Fold this protein.
Amino acid sequence: MLPLSSVRLSGVRGCVGACLANAYQLTAGASARTAKRVVWEEMSKLLVGCCSWADKPLIDSGKFYPPDAKSAEDRLRYYAGQFPIVEVDSTFYGLPDETTVRHWIARTPDEFTFNVKAFRAFTGHQTPPKVLAKDQRALLSEEQQEAKTVYYDKLPQELRDELWRTFNERLLALDSAGKLGAVVFQFPPWFTYARDNFRLVAHCREMLPLQFTMAVEFRNALWLAEDTRERTLSFLRENGLVLVAVDEPQGFPSSVPPLAEVTCERLAMVRFHGRNSETWAASARTSAERFDWYYQDEELEEWLPRIEQLAEQASEVHLMMNTNRSDQGPVNARRLGRLLRERGLDAGDGPRGQQLGLALEVPAGTEER
């Protein structure tokens, strides 16, 4: 494994290097987006979509997909005709299948974008051994194989390497097709502001191929508290990591303020989780119950100045609806799209962002909180 300070591209650090005009992709496995010479434009590209197209509540609602969209292929093709981007949530629960990824590529237009959720083990979430492939489970100790869950920091190094190899290999196919947007790392509420956790974020960046874009969503308020915010944002900027801005219920330890900051010039991202305070911190809730929210115009209008600010600073802005009861995702995405058009912020067909390698550093003096 490379030391953090050695992951560099020609001595250029972070997004400053990635945003040089006329830059070329210098790493192996260059994508269809990054293999070409890029001329940057001033206007951002706004992409509005949903965090999944295959949720059972959405399918069962009968409100979004037409009656003749009965297969997985029919539904993805229909979705991709309605929105230019989607987030793949299934990759959080298990590593993607090679055939499935090929189907995603074949069933969507050339300019379609997939953001992909990082596998849960990588972000410190509890991971049931049963979601691993048989040969991967064999690398666990007997005790771990019998356990209900395992955690990344306790896994054998050989298994860690194998999980990253498999994950990256599957996503390289999307990247080569020009359809990989960002890899979204959603860290859990117990992932506090601490030096070791800064190191884990940097480790995740180090383990991804250089041309992948990494987006980070925190679920612990301490990362963006008034006295820690600048250090967190500086760390993200130095390492070319995208801060995922969020709209979510406030007043909980897991509540992150709706901070719209560009930490990587090629991409900004907002994930809209709804504002259901009654279910946000409740246990034993399904995602459909937790993120049960139809946005009203006035709630989304609060974000329009922030989105405009993001669009002025980032080359591409992804606006993702993670409200997934019934048809809430598509309804909310279309509502936001309408409000953007009314403000003159329509989603255009501008160039894709150049994705290059990054330097990685952990800020000195970071103390656990």
